[in-house]
């Protein structure tokens, strides 16, 4: 996954008018935890899986 994927996700969330709260609900995680993932505070295997899922939801090509 590209290093700047978090920035791409944030940009796409803005473009598609997707709120962090709504995205967190789709993922089954808290908005606070999602915020930590998007800021890079959480970057373990579970966070990486969430980033992959977010990319799929927002139709972001990661390759």
Task: Note down, in words, how this protein is organized.
The protein has 63 residues and is mainly alpha-helical. It has one domain. Helix content is 65%, strand content 0%. It has four helices and no strands. α2 packs across α3. The longest helix is centred in the last third of the chain and has 13 residues. It is globular and about 25 Å long. The mean pLDDT is 94.
What value does the average pLDDT take? 94
The multimeric state of the shown protein is: single chain
Helix/strand class:
mainly alpha
Task: List the domain count as a whole number.
Answer: 1
Sketch the topology as an H/E string, one letter per element: HHHH
Coarse morphology: globular
Per DSSP E runs of 2 or more residues, the count of β-strands stands at 0
Q: What summary fits the major beta sheet? A: none
Helical run tally: 4
Catalogue the unreliable spans: none
What portion of residues is helical?
55-70%
Q: What is the distance, rounded to the nearest whole angstrom, between the alpha carbons of the first and last residues?
A: 7 Å
Strand content: under 5%
Radius of gyration: 10 Å
What are the key terms here?
63 residues; 0% strand
Describe the SSE topology.
Elements: H1 5-15, H2 20-27, H3 31-39, H4 45-57
Helix pairs in contact: 2-3
Summarize the structure.
The chain is built from 4 helices and no strands. With 63 residues, the protein is an all-alpha fold.
